[in-house]
Amino acid sequence: MDIPSTWLRPRAEIIYCAPTQETDDDAIGSSSKFPLGYLIAAHRTQNVVRSCSRWLQDQHYRPWRLHPLKLQPLTPVPSDLEISRAQVAKPVDQLATEIGLLPEELESYGRNKAKVRLSLLDRLHSQPDGKYVLVAGITPTPLGEGKSTVTVGLVQALSAHLKLNSFACLRQPSQGPTFGVKGGAAGGGYAQVIPMEEFNLHLTGDIHAITAANNLVAAAIDARILHEATQSDKALFKRLVPSVNGVRKFSPIQISRLRRLGINKTDPESLTSQEISNFVRLDLDPKKITWQRVVDTNDRFLRKITIGQASTEKGQIRETGFDIAVASEIMAILALADSLEDMKNRLARMVVGTSHSGLPVTAEDLGVSGALAVLMKDAIKPTLMQTLEGTPVFVHAGPFANIAHGNSSVLADKLALKLVGRDGFVVTEAGFGADIGMEKFFNIKCRASGLRPNVVVLVATVRALKMHGGGPHVSRHGTDLPAPYLNSLHLVAGGCQSNLKKQIQIAQQFGVPVVVALNVFKTDTQAEIDLVCQIARECGAFDALPCNHWAQGGRGSVALAQAVKQAASKPSNFQFLYHSEMPIVEKIRTIAQRVYGADDIDLSLEAQTKIDYYNQQGYGSLPICMAKTHLSLSHMPDKKGAPTGFVLPIRDVRASVGAGFIYPLVGTMSTMPGLPTRPCFYDIDLDPATEEITGLF
Length: 697
Known about the structure:
Elements: E1 22-24, E2 32-34, H1 36-60, H2 80-86, H3 92-98, E3 106-108, E4 114-116, H4 119-123, E5 131-137, H5 147-161, E6 166-170, H6 175-178, E7 187-188, E8 191-194, H7 196-200, H8 206-230, H9 233-240, E9 243-244, E10 247-248, H10 252-260, H11 273-280, E11 284-289, E12 293-295, E13 305-307, E14 318-320, E15 322-324, H12 329-336, H13 340-349, E16 351-355, E17 360-362, H14 363-366, H15 369-376, E18 383-387, E19 392-395, H16 410-420, E20 425-429, H17 434-449, E21 455-460, H18 462-468, H19 489-508, E22 514-519, H20 526-538, E23 543-547, H21 549-552, H22 558-568, H23 584-596, E24 600-603, H24 605-616, E25 647-656, E26 661-666, E27 685-686, E28 693-694
Parallel strand pairs: 5-20, 5-21, 6-19, 6-20, 12-15, 21-22, 22-23, 24-25
Antiparallel strand pairs: 1-2, 3-4, 4-18, 7-8, 8-18, 9-10, 11-16, 13-14, 16-17, 18-19, 25-26, 27-28
């Protein structure tokens, strides 16, 4: 019968296999008949196979056809917002096509940004990785020294000027510093991610998803404590395993809990009274709940709060607090997971507190881990954006480096390394100074991802070096720098011989070559610039270059890009600072002495008790994530340069089991920042007529 065309997919290949036979009158002997229909079918099948093979080959890797955007830098340099608005960005689907993404791998969020699906990793699994470059920095002033700006300027130079495939991988900025002191994190001047308003504000909602997931766990904890305190075992069981149409049935997550309890039963009616009690009672100790609520705002008055004061909570009052959203363990999990399944498993393993009998209670025990994965299913996909010169950027995850591990996601890096190809470059950034963000990049992120860096770019500024050389305190944006910062070679030299030298040495302990990038300001003199580069090379840097990307875009960082390319061609002898099986206390001491320069550590009784408990629970092999001030190599923010002769106080130790690290709290470090007297929000406004934002930087 004839097949209606509506039965077939568009562009389907039709192979008609009817046994048509033709007579060959010229054949020797009597007439012969040949099944030409089958021969035609065979040829068509062969053609289909060849066509599909060519199509599959094309899917494996698509060479880049990047069309950079032209920059016309102005003097004086306008505000970041003005520069961002003056450039017309490419539609994100055009950018995706230029870098070899398939249409089905893209989920657009408007014209300027899109999520990239993780299926890309399967398509390019056999593609060799590109070179892996980490941008770190010296100990910064409160204003930041421009690591994001250097990262963007470097990839603009690599792609737009040296014609090498390159990708920037940046963290999503938190609303806390955006409206607090530091401002946004899109870069600055003519080295920015655009549109900077979208980058610095809600982006694609990942931080909101983390906030919702984190606070769902917090709500589940307190609700469970309330219900266990006010109901019998029998009543709890009836509500946790309700009868539907006369039948009780465990959910999959409840069966998982039964297995962990050693109960190999699936019929709710078969449980004994003791098994029912064990199943329904988490028995959380309110004094040992470690999970806190989060909000993405610097709000010091939420550091310690009391909850449960309403009469409806029946006396379940306890003290707790808020962290800033980017300090949530869920943010760390997002940044360290290498697949959706891995993220789901990590979410399930999160320990939220301890029972009265001393057993850890997890998110899976609460029955909430599946719901968390649902809330996070889109957040796990990196967001594609572009620089001012039209080169690609992945924006994904945003943990702080002082109170978390401070790096963008493993998945963004892995996707980018496949996309750039063997000869390309992926440039990612670690938060704050190399002693914090870089150390955690190496010991935590690289340990989790299996990736190994080829080069470290260490960012310095003359301003910060003068501070470390003995200059007065640097406060905030919008104020003039003190007079000694205008022209003082001895302060520059002092900062180079102390903090810059120490940070170079820290990087060298990991066996990775260091290129120093001096982020040039208009107030810097040539003598100061030359002195920094000279001392940096004397201190062991592979090279040291001044960078003018802020004023010139990628063209101002071509020399840096060439130095990075040359350094990446050298063999890297990467090594971890410590073995994972080293005792927790010794891992902390190793970081304190070899990275910070401390004589020793001082563990509080509470910290030692926690460490003993974590060893007992089998967490001793986890890496260390120090929560420490970013304003000094020590625990004392006012101690600049490279302090020595101090003992590092460890007041508490916590475990992020799902994320996969132990984090000691150093000194008075807080996981919720506060607002200054005059925050950035004083300058941020909206024009109702044009809907244009002003004051962001």
